[in-house]
């Protein structure tokens, strides 16, 4: 299977209009449902930047044109293509042609109900991807069509069938058998996954690893070891990266000033937030915001 990871330069998509004080959050699934699988809406063209309410989304487009923004990255719609939206990511569409495809929404409760550990591990592999171009589309579309059909049936076996079809879909995408996609197993990976889930789903972000270690009933040392084994980075580095990502979202998509953003991110001293941001981003928050605006108007 020939796949190509999407890669495009960043240009800010913002207008002259006043930005909101808060980031919009959409919820496209009912509170009593654990998952949702349906065709992509053909009337979607341009949407405002928003997050989703704590669910993971897989989007497949077999037709369409334009662009898809995920956080500050602009991806070209060049079907067939898969997009993966994590639970905290910002995104919006700028479609110039009629889209066709499928959307899969998975809540955390879906994973809690599933007893298939391999499926959970496969989902963890695509959590860190944004976009994947593919060449051969028919096999994926067959599986996705079956998922939509099964979603409409809803009987005692539906959940298990959906489990199996999702595993088949992700197995095809990841190309099981390749060394680069060998599944990681064990207690360390489970601890890392639970830590990642906490920092992605519990707002506002806390700035101490010890806070999350207490929540996970472990020590900061064990949590660091789990993160290093899973992704080669410490728990602190992972947390700081998430704080930086959220800071960039607030700078780009809201009109809040630097002090307000610092307090939103649990910095008691705004000057420390500026130092934190500059150390990781090589720009001050204000400089980053101005640079983003300039890039848009090049």
Structure description:
- This protein has helices at 108-113, 117-126, 138-153, 158-174, 187-201, 209-215, 220-231, 235-253, 258-264, 270-281, 285-296, and strands at residues 3-5, 25-26, 35-39, 51-52, 55-70, 73-76, 81-85, 91-107, 131-134.
- The protein is an alpha+beta fold and 298 residues long.
- The chain has 2 domains: 3-181, Regulatory protein AraC (Jelly Rolls), CATH 2.60.120; 187-296, Orthogonal Bundle (Arc Repressor Mutant, subunit A), CATH 1.10.10.60.
- Strands 1, 3, 5, 6, 7, 8 and 9 form a 7-stranded antiparallel sheet that branches.
- Helix 8 crosses helix 11.
- The chain starts with a strand and ends with a helix.
- The model is unreliable at 1-16 and 176-186 (pLDDT under 50).
**Large-scale geometry:** globular
Count of the domains: 2
The termini sit apart by: 38 Å
Q: How many helices does DSSP assign? A: 11
Assign the structural class, choosing from mainly alpha, mainly beta, alpha/beta, alpha+beta, or little secondary structure.
Answer: alpha+beta
Strand content: 15-25%
**Could you say what the CATH architecture of the largest domain is?**
Sandwich
Order of helices and strands: EEEEEEEEHHEHHHHHHHHH
CATH class of the largest domain: Mainly Beta
Helix content: 40-55%
Tell me the total number of β-strands: 9
Alpha-carbon Rg, integer: 20 Å
